[in-house]
Structure formats: C-alpha cells, structure tokens
C-alpha cells in the first residue's frame, strides 16, 4: 500500500514537473512574442514620427511662391459661379473703350479694351487696334462673346483692395449673437483664426462690393498677438461656403498667411479686470518677448529634430515638435506668415521694430500707424520694406490718435514709403474706402499713389499682387467701371466684376468729357502767408468772386467775376465793380481770389466739441456722462434739477475748436457729452462760436433738451422703448406749468432734440407730438426716409447724423446705401420737403464737415445750395438759433465742399478772423 502510494506520489510529481515545464515553455514563448510585437510597434511609431516629421522638415522654411500670371489659365472662383456655363469653348466678356487706371495709379493714354475669360483678365489692348479688332472678330466668329460692355470713356480700375477690415466677424447689425471680433481669453491668442467666425450673412459684404471693394483682409482685433487673418473676395458664392470666399481657396502648395498684432492702448485697455494680464506697455513688452521666447524654443526644437533625423540619421524617438499655441509664431519667425501690427504712437512702433529685430522677424505692415509720418527714417532704416496701412483723416479721439495729421500720407509718400489706406470697418464704413483715397489726395498724396493705395499697393501689402490689384493679363478679373474719375467726389461704381462675375450692373451713359483727377490743395505761397497780416481788420476788398451761396448777400447775376467790399465790418458793395467806393483810398487791403466762392459760416451739432478734447480721456475736459452713470453717481433725470447743461462745462479754445473754425465751422451746438454707452437723458445743449476764448462766444446757453429713444436710450429707470416714451410723456405733462426744462419743452419754448434712428420710434414720436403739441427735432434719423412724407407733414425736421449707411445697430438696419442704384437718405428727405440738417455723430469728422457733406451731396445728387443750407442756415432754423446777422462768411477758392478747394478767408461778424488759415495750426497745449 505504502509502495503503491509512493509510486502514485512519484507519478504525481512527474506530472507536476512536466506541467511546470510546459507552463515555463509557454511563458517563454509568450514573452518572446510580446517582445517581438512591441519591437514592431515601436518601430512603426518611430516610422510615423519620421515620415510625418520629414514632411515638416522639407517645408518648414519654405515660403509661399508668387503665381506666374502668364501661366494662369483659369480662375477656380469663377467656376463656382459659372454653373456649368464654361463648358466647351470658354466665354468672354469684353469691356470696350475705357480709360484704365492701373494698380500703380498710372492712367492709360488711350482708350482700352479688356477681354475677360474664365474669371481672369485675358488681355488688355488699345481700343480699335488691329490686335483688339482681330481678337474680337475671331471670338465673334466662334460665338464666344457672352457679354459686351461699352465703357464709353469711363474710368476703369482694378477692384479696390481693403487691407484692414472686420467684415464678417463683426456682422451688421451688431448683435451679441454675431459679434466675434474680440477674443478676450488672453492678450495672446496667435492660435485664433477669423475664418472660424466669418459670417457670410453679413450685409456689409455686399455693401463692400457695391462700393467697388472686391477683396479684404479680415483681421481679428485688439490682442497683443491677436491671431490669424484671411483674405476674402467680397462676394458670397451660390454654395454659401465661407471657404469658397477665400482668395486662395483652391491653391495647392503653400498659401500666404497673415497675422495680426497690436501695440499700445488697445491691448493695454482690454484686460483691466484681469490681474494676470499686462496693464502697461512694459507689461505688454514683457509678454511679447516671453511669448516669442517660447516660440523660439519650439522653433529650435524643430530645427534640432530635423538636424538629428536628416544629418545624424537618428531614428526619432519623439514626434516633430508642434504646439498649437505657438505654431503661428514659429511660422512668423520662419518668414512664412506676414505680420500686420496695429500701432499708433512713434514709440510703440519703435518698440515693435526693436522686438522684430530681437526675434529676427519682419513687420510686414504697420496698421493705423497715424504717427509713422513723424519717424520716416526709423521705418526706412529697417532691412525690409514696411507697408503703412493707415487712415486719411482719423484724429483726436484718444491719446494715440491725437498727433495725427491729414498730411501724413503725403509726407510718407515724399519719403518713398508705401502708403495703403484702409477703413478698419466697422470703425469707418466699408464703402468709405474710396473716399479715404480721395481725402488723402486732397491733402497732397499724389493721384497715382492715392489710387495705388487702395489697389496695387494694398495687393502688394498682402503679397497677393500676383493675383489682383492690377488689370493685367492673368490677373483675377476684379474690375470696376466708375461713374467719374474715382478721385472725384461722388464717383460710384457702375459695374463691378469679381473674378469675372458681375456684382454691380448699372447702365453706363455716354460721357463726352472726361474728368481728370481733382487737384490737391496747393501749399500757401509766401504772398498768401504775408496776407495773414490782414487778420483782425474789418475792411477788405475781395476780387474774383464767381459764386455765392450766402442768400443774405445776394446772388451773382452772371458769370463775370465780382467784387466783394467789406468796409468797417459791413458789406458795402457786392457787384462786378466796386471801384467807385474804394478808388479814392489806395490803401484798401485786397485779396484776389481764383474762382472765389462765398458761403455762410457753418453751424453744426457735435457730440462733444467744446467739452472734451479726447473722448477716451475724460480728464481732458468736462467728462463723459456715461462714466459717471456707471458709477451710479448720476441723479434721477425725472427730477428736472438733475438735467445737465453743456453750457456749464464749456472749455474754450480747444484744439478741436481751433481746427473746426479753421475749416469754416463757426457755430457749434453741443449737448453734454454722453459717450458711447446707452443713455436716455443727455441734457441741454449750448450753442457757441468756435473761435472765442470766453463766454462772449456763447450764442445761446440753452438750445435744446436732448433725449435718446430707442436701444441706445435703454438706461436705468427706462430700460425699454415703451418706458422711454411713457416717461417722456409723463415728465412733459407733469411739468407743463413748471419753470424747468421739461416745462419749457412742453410749452414749446425749448426744442426737444430726440436722438433716434429707428423708423418705428419716429412713428411713436409723431404720435406724441400730435398728442402734446411739442416741437421735436429728430437727430440721427438714419431710417427717416421710411417716414419722410409724415415727417414733412408734421413739420418735424431731421438732423441726419451721420449720412452714411452703416447698419451698425438694429435701429438703423434699414438705411439706404445710395450705391448700386439704391436711393439715398438725403435725397428722399429733400424730395419729401423735410427740413433737413446734416452733422456728424463723430467728433473726429467734425473738421471734415465741408468735404464730408460735399460727398454726401454728390452721392445723393442734391444741389449745392441745398447742401450748404443743410450745414448752415437749416441748422440754425431747426435749433431755433439767431446767429448774428453781421457777415460771417467762408471765402474760398473753388466750391468749398469740393476736393481741391481751399479757404482763403474766414470772416466773423465782419472781421477778417483768419486769412489763408493753416488747417492744422501748430498748437501749444501748455500755454
Ligand atoms: C523695397 O522697396 C523698394 C522700392 O519699392 C524695392 O526696390 C526693394 O526691392 C524692396 N526691398 C525689399 C527687401 O523687398
Ligand atoms: C525718394 O525717391 C526718389 C526717386 O528714387 C529720390 O529722388 C528721393 O531722394 C527719395 N526721397 C527720399 C526722402 O528718400
Ligand atoms: C489778431 O488778434 C489776435 C487776438 O487778439 C492776435 O493774437 C493776433 O496776433 C492778431 N493778428 C494780427 C495779424 O494782428
Ligand atoms: C471806416 O470808419 C472810419 C471811421 O468811422 C471812416 O473814417 C472810414 O472811412 C471808414 N472806412 C471805410 C472804408 O468806409
Ligand atoms: C424759438 O425762439 C423764439 C424766440 O427766441 C421763442 O419765442 C420760441 O419759443 C422758440 N421756440 C422753441 C420751440 O423753442
């Protein structure tokens, strides 16, 4: 038994032994297998690192190539619109008999024909030349011409190119739901892209093409390192695809890329409440360097990776180093991305250039750059060319913009620097791009550079001048046929093509005479400067007067130049020959005018002239009501004692006032400054002369009670439009017999200036007026064309402010653009017989009132007399002002609202107050 069991045990042991071995064997096999598999896996990951990384190594230092226009045969964007029409033999559009102003600003000597095929300029040939006739005959024989346009001597330019816009990412009208312009997660957002936010439903896209703008760089806003911008064509394709609007959408290979940066006030201001974000330029500088240092580490790691793989033939153990946060900046360092930096002050520009040098990057374009004209040498001394993408006339609203000059583009040109003009839409409305060039030309930028600044030079600034910006073979068929020379006031696109597809299509009427570019204003001659000695005198003779718009001094009966003789402050003679009166006195001072025009001194309504110098710096004057309201300090306006009066805050002799006077704005009406926020009660306006240093300038201390109704009036106590209307009704009725501002308004002793743009609010106001019998002035009135007859019938005047359709807010979304055949607000009001005034809602524009209203009038097709009334006597009548009857005149050479005209003298109350005034007189702020 014992032995048997022994044997059994032994068998068991043997079995166990075998089992153990079998287990160990299979474990060995298992482990080796695992090891082998792991090795395979390791190898394939490294292979992937290698193959993906090699792609990066190959292209990391490549920069986009320019297209060869001679080789371009088709424009893929055309196909998007062509709907199969381009099958078979390609069809042609021929534009005949136009004068071409090309992207370099040169005008063709002869009439030219442009052949457009498949969205490209196929050829440009002299009209009537053998080659043009032959090609046309040949295409005719093939039935290949689908559209033939006779430009009838009109000017043709390439489509306008906007280098700085926020169209699509700040859609109109601005709603919380569609404003995507500012990303405030951090001041450093190089990884954000405007394409992610671009809204094809923004009506400003069509407004752009209606105004001749065919391509635009859409930049993100405000951050120190803001993100990536994209260039879009200004036409939504039938597919509604954002990507198909990209200029480079179908390009293979490397594409141009643009990034945005910002210096100074914008990035400094935006993160006030964030402890970790910079608050000073020093902090911004640090953050910039810190970020670039991080990018440099990444770039070095990339280069080391490639060196190790390509030179040392090492198998990579890590992937090619990338970092979504920094890739854009590495590409900037590699020269693959074009930097576009928003910078105003000279020292901000210098800091940026210092940083650029430190990190070996190039600054492709300085945007806004209002002070660049003060440092041309610093800009030129860089080892690369910098485009100055600036404005023609922005000035004064903040410290950064206070040193700006309307002569800056001219000075930059003189220094051989590249000038591009932009709108920064919606800062300025997109359709004003052309007028930027016009205004810059008026102040001395040459006609060639003015046109180039919004066509070829802008295309160069984008490094897309291989594709658009010029009318040359192989370029995108972005073409504009103008109603007039594009630098002439009121020139409008009659036809616009984008990639050969019609965007605007108005009839072209034959033109017998071709306008040339208007002249820039000439510099003052020594003799003219010498005539400034006549200032303060009350006796002067003007000769060479050819037109008068001041009805109080009579009209010219014929075209003979007349004389105007002012003696001891009164007009004693206005006729062809006054010599009888002055022949005895040879010492009468004389000013001879070329094409002399006499107009009344202007009267305008301003947001804060006479109160604040820089609107974003409330310390520079009376202050801004909104800011006080934010702090809860403003009293309840339903109590009449709490209504502020501008007269109590007047600041005399400010730079804004001096410049306003120098441009003929003698009389100014200003309500208490409300700022940009929402506010129902602004208070009581005051009227004063702009050229005085004390209370003698006040024309009327209490002019009108200013109230805002509509979205912009939604404030504490009156958060809805209905509460605004009922509150207004209540305070008027309640105070009817009281001696306070509400009582005076209720009794019709003080005009009620209601700031509103919305048609339905105006309807409510008409009802309120009928109910209470009050005198109402509509200020703003952007939708007032929809009620023009009713307003006229009820004697409600409108002070249009501003005239340009911007659709910034919901309340003004139904504005008339005046472009592409649409009517204009001013002409609708005139036609209906509404008493109309015209002013600006922007202090920056006040000193530009002459040309701005000239532009409004010529776009609206209203007469010279009518427009001059809108900015002078109509304003006085609307605001119930009696301006001194003694002669207060603008004496100008040329029609003062036209470009190229110049003010020769400003007469105030019979005294020669200014003679050949400097538009930007040197100002000493400290004495
Ligand atoms: C800069 O511009 C000038 C004048 O347009 C041109 O001759 C030069 O080649 C440009 N330099 C660079 C580095 O592009
Ligand atoms: C601008 O260029 C022109 C022509 O090349 C030259 O004559 C002129 O001296 C340059 N001006 C400046 C300020 O560099
Ligand atoms: C005119 O009067 C002003 C103010 O009194 C004075 O500053 C200015 O020098 C005078 N101009 C002339 C030419 O006398
Ligand atoms: C201006 O008035 C003075 C004094 O009243 C007079 O002597 C002079 O002749 C007048 N000048 C003219 C041009 O009428
Ligand atoms: C307009 O001014 C006149 C004269 O000063 C005054 O009698 C009238 O009440 C004023 N009208 C309004 C609506 O302010």
From TrEMBL:
<feature type="domain" description="Amidohydrolase-related">
    <location>
        <begin position="155"/>
        <end position="500"/>
    </location>
</feature>
<dbReference type="GO" id="GO:0016810">
    <property type="term" value="F:hydrolase activity, acting on carbon-nitrogen (but not peptide) bonds"/>
</dbReference>
<dbReference type="InterPro" id="IPR051781">
    <property type="entry name" value="Metallo-dep_Hydrolase"/>
</dbReference>
<dbReference type="InterPro" id="IPR011059">
    <property type="entry name" value="Metal-dep_hydrolase_composite"/>
</dbReference>
<protein>
    <recommendedName>
        <fullName>Amidohydrolase-related domain-containing protein</fullName>
    </recommendedName>
</protein>
<dbReference type="InterPro" id="IPR006680">
    <property type="entry name" value="Amidohydro-rel"/>
</dbReference>
<dbReference type="InterPro" id="IPR032466">
    <property type="entry name" value="Metal_Hydrolase"/>
</dbReference>
<dbReference type="Pfam" id="PF01979">
    <property type="entry name" value="Amidohydro_1"/>
</dbReference>
């Amino acid at each position: 038994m014992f032995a048997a069991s022994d044997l059994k045990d032994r068998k068991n042991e043997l079995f166990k032994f075998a089992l153990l071995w079998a287990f160990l064997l299979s474990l060995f096999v298992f482990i080796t297998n695992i090891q082998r598999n792991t090795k395979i896996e390791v190898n394939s990951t490294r292979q992937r690192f290698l193959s993906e990384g090699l792609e990066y190594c190959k292209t990391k230092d490549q920069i986009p190539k320019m297209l060869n226009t001679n080789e371009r045969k088709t424009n893929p964007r055309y196909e998007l619109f062509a709907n199969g029409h381009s099958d078979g033999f390609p069809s042609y559009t021929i534009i005949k008999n136009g004068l071409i102003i090309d992207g370099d600003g040169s005008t063709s000597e002869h009439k030219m024909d442009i052949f457009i095929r498949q969205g490209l300029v196929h050829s440009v040939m002299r009209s009537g030349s053998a080659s043009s006739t032959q090609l046309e005959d040949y295409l005719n024989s093939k039935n290949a011409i689908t559209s033939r346009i006779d430009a009838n001597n009109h000017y043709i330019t390439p489509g306008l190119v906007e280098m700085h816009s926020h169209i699509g990412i700040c859609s109109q009208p601005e709603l919380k739901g569609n404003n995507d312009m500012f990303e405030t997660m951090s001041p450093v957002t190089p990884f954000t892209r405007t394409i992610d936010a671009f809204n094809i439903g923004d009506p400003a896209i069509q407004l752009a093409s209606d105004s001749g703008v065919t391509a635009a760089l859409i930049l993100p806003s405000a951050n120190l390192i803001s993100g990536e911008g994209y260039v879009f064509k200004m036409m939504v394709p039938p597919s509604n695809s954002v990507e198909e609007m990209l200029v480079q959408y179908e390009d293979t290979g490397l594409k141009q890329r643009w990034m945005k940066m910002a210096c100074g006030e914008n990035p400094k201001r935006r993160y006030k409440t964030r402890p970790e974000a910079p608050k000073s330029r020093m902090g911004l500088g640090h953050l910039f360097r810190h970020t670039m240092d991080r990018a440099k580490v990444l770039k070095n790691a990339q280069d080391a990776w490639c060196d190790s793989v390509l030179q040392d033939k090492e198998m990579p153990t890590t992937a090619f180093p990338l970092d979504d946060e920094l890739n854009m900046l590495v590409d900037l360092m590699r020269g693959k991305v074009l930097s576009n930096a928003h910078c105003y002050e000279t020292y901000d520009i210098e800091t940026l250039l210092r940083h650029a040098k430190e990190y070996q990057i190039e600054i492709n374009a300085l945007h806004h750059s209002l002070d660049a004209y003060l440092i041309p040498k610093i800009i030129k001394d860089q080892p690369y060319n910098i485009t100055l993408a600036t404005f023609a006339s922005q000035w004064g609203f903040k410290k950064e913009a206070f040193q700006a000059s309307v002569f800056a583009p001219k000075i930059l040109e003189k220094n051989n620097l590249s000038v591009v003009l932009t709108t920064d839409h919606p800062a300025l409305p997109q359709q004003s791009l052309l007028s930027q060039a016009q205004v810059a030309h008026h102040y001395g930028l040459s006609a060639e550079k003015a046109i180039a600044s919004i066509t070829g030079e802008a295309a160069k600034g984008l490094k897309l001048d291989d594709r658009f910006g010029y009318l040359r073979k192989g370029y995108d068929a972005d073409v504009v046929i103008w109603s007039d020379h594009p630098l002439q006031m009121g020139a409008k696109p009659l036809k616009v093509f984008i990639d050969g597809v019609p965007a605007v299509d108005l009839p072209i009427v034959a033109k017998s005479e071709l306008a040339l570019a208007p002249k820039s204003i000439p510099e003052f001659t020594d003799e003219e400067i010498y005539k400034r000695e006549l200032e303060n005198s009350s006796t002067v003779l003007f000769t060479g007067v050819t037109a008068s718009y001041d009805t109080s001094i009579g009209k010219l009966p014929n075209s003979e130049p007349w004389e105007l003789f002012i003696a001891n402050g009164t007009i004693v003679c206005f006729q062809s020959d006054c010599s009888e009166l002055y022949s005895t006195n040879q010492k009468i001072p004389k000013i001879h005018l070329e094409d002399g025009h006499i107009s009344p001194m202007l009267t305008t309504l301003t947001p804060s002239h006479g109160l604040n110098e820089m609107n974003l710096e409330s310390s520079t004057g009376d202050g801004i009501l909104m800011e006080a309201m934010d702090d809860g300090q403003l009293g309840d306006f339903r109590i009449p004692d709490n209504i502020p009066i501008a007269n109590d805050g007047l600041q005399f002799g400010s730079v804004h006032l001096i410049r306003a006077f120098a441009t003929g704005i003698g009389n100014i009406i200003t309500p208490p400054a409300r700022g940009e926020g929402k506010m129902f009660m602004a208070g009581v306006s005051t009227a004063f002369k702009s050229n005085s240093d004390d209370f003698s300038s006040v024309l009327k201390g209490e002019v009108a009670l200013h109230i805002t109704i509509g979205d912009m009036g939604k404030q504490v106590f009156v958060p809805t439009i209905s509460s605004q209307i009922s509150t207004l009704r209540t305070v008027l009725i309640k105070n009817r017999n009281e001696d306070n501002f509400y009582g005076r308004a209720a009794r019709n002793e003080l005009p009620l200036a209601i700031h509103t743009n919305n048609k339905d609010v105006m309807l409510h106001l008409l009802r309120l007026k009928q109910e209470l019998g009050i005198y109402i002035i509509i200020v703003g009135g952007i939708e007032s064309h929809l009620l023009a007859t009713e307003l006229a019938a009820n004697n409600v005047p409108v002070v249009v402010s501003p005239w340009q359709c911007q659709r910034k807010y919901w309340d003004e979304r139904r504005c008339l653009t005046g472009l592409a055949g649409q009517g204009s607000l001013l002409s609708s009001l005139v036609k209906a017989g509404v008493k109309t005034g015209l002013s600006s809602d922007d202090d920056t524009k006040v000193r530009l009132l002459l040309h701005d209203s000239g532009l409004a009038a010529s776009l609206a097709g209203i007469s010279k007399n009518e427009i001059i009334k809108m900015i002078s006597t109509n304003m006085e009548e609307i605001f119930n002002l009696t301006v001194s009857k003694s002669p207060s005149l603008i004496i100008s050479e040329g029609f003062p609202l036209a470009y190229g005209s110049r003010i020769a003298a400003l007469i105030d109350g019979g005294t020669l107050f200014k003679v050949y005034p400097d538009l930007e007189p040197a100002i000493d702020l400290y004495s």
